[in-house]
Amino acid sequence: MSLFQREREIIVDNEFTDSFDFEEIEEFVSGASKNLFISHRFATSDKMQVQPRGGFPTYEKVFRLYEEFKSAGVDILPLTIDSNTRLNDYATARKMLELSEENDTDMLNGYPLINHGYRTTRKMMVHFDTPVSLRHGTPDARLLVETAIASGIFEIEGGPITYLLPYSKNFPLDKAFLYWKYVEKVCAHYSQFNEAINRESFGPLSATMQPPAIVLAIQIIEMLLSLEEGVRSFSVSFSQSGSVVQDVVSANVLKRLARKYADTFGFTDAAIHLVYHQWMGAFPRDKFFSDSLITTGTVIAAMVGADKIITKTRNEAYGIPTKEANALAVANVQYTLGILRGLPAISDEREEEHLERMVDAIMQAVLNDDADTLWRKVYNSIKKGYIEIPFSPHIINANEVITVRDPDGNIRIYDRGRLPIPDDCFEYERSKIELPEGKRVVEKIIEDIGIMQ
Q1: For the chain, how big is the Rg over CA atoms in Å?
Q2: Domain map (residue ranges) of the chain
Q3: Per residue in 162-215, pLDDT tens?
Q4: Per residue, what are the HEC states of the chain?
Q5: What confidence category does residue 322 fall into, taking pLDDT thresholds of 50, 70 and 90?
Q6: Does 345 score more than 90 pLDDT?
């Protein structure tokens, strides 16, 4: 038995899990329907894939949610994991699941996959015969991912940066890198038996005033960390920024640089996909405005040529959407995509060159670190403040970068902190900002955060 397999045996030996039969799981993955693999869907369909969000504690409610989604024409099903499981607190998750089942009241904000187990969950995955994406936000997702793949969930979202800095305050960064290295190895292992397990980075980050240079650099880094462990299908992503032009520019640069860095590192056979998240910030309370915001996001996704769009609902300002609202959003997005045919390609060459230079500068600062492995280079770069996520709660995050919007709604870098971007690029960013006389920067930030309300 290899050291890695021994580690896997230890991870799955948990009182809250099914007893894992690795041989049986490999046989299941080998014989699984191609329809369960989003990597297969990407390779065989030119259509943009539509994926909502959603998850409930009980098996029955998730089953009914999937029925609602399927009737609305969904392409990719979501499985959102509850917050106790995200924190590896499986004991509390089990208690809350029992209460949810007994009282028909949702005591968890998602599906406790560990407690349901892969044998039970697999029945639902096989029944719907549709790709399912695991959405969770977990720094230590080792057991969760083992259980997900055994269940028939063949797309795993997240990464050591995007599922740590925006979500956690104290979780050790070095452990997150090592735990996600394990996840990548598991995904690469199971990719041998059928279609590739697809990995997807979480582009929205803190979903608040994220400058594209930081978003794109982190996407490329998490892609490289995944590919170096043997993953061969990866999705980079970003979210609607509030500026149509900036989204188009971000998409064009991200697609180009992701391919460039993958090829430079020797991963020429890797399939790279683009995912676009509809607006992740505060939604307007007027549901008609919400509908307009969602439609705008759908149009932008079509303009940038996204391979997948992740939808929102008109109820976002009011709490967790119902399954009916979620299904309506899917149907509306599918309808809008059906109308959008033959959109012309647009770009802003100066903005693209400017953004590309900033991303390359950040990447070079990371890659020039003296550490002997990529993950250590990235770890050191975060500690140095070369990479940071604005509004992250994590104690290691520098929290020095300040962003505001320019008059056209583009997110600009007002204070670069320790970001290693060229001086002339920073001067260009500052030249686009117009701060009204007498208005404090913090007031401008608050105003810009609530731009869609």
Answers
A1: 21
A2: 3-339, 349-449
A3: 999 999 999 999 999 999 999 999 999 999 999 999 999 999 999 999 999 999
A4: CCHHHHHHHHHHCCCCCCCCCHHHHHHHHHHCCHHHCHHHHHHHCCCCEEECCCCCCCHHHHHHHHHHHHHCCCCCEEEEECHHHHCCCHHHHHHHHHHHHHHCCCCCCCECHHHHCHHHHHHHHHHHCCCEEEECCCCCCHHHHHHHHHHCCCEEECCCCCCCCCCCCCCCHHHHHHHHHHHHHHHHHHCCCCCCCEEECCCCCCCCCCCHHHHHHHHHHHHHHHHCCCCCEEEEEEECCCCHHHHHHHHHHHHHHHHHHHHHCCCCCCEEEEEEECCCCCCCCCHHHHHHHHHHHHHHHHHHCCCEEECCCCCHHHCCCCHHHHHHHHHHHHHHHHHCCCCCCCCCHHHHHHHHHHHHHHHHHHHCCCCCCHHHHHHHHHHHCCCCCCCCCCCCCCCCCEEEECCCCCEEEEECCCCCCCHHHHHHHHHCCCCCCCCCHHHHHHHHHCCCC
A5: confident
A6: no
Contact assessment for residue 114 and residue 16, using Cβ atoms and an 8 Å cutoff: yes
Distance CA 215, CA 217 (A): 6
Q: Which residues, 6+ apart, have CB-to-CB distance to 383 below 8 Å?
A: 396
CB neighbours of residue 85 within 10 Å: 28
pTM: 0.97
> In whole angstroms, what is the distance from residue 81 CA to residue 234 CA?
21
In this predicted model, what pLDDT tens digit does every residue of 363-401 receive, in sequence order? 999 999 999 999 999 999 999 999 999 999 999 999 999
Identify the CATH number of the domain defined by range 3-339.
3.20.20.240
pLDDT at site 422: 98
- Both tokens of 234, joined, read 């990866």
The CA distance from 65 to 68, in Å, is 5
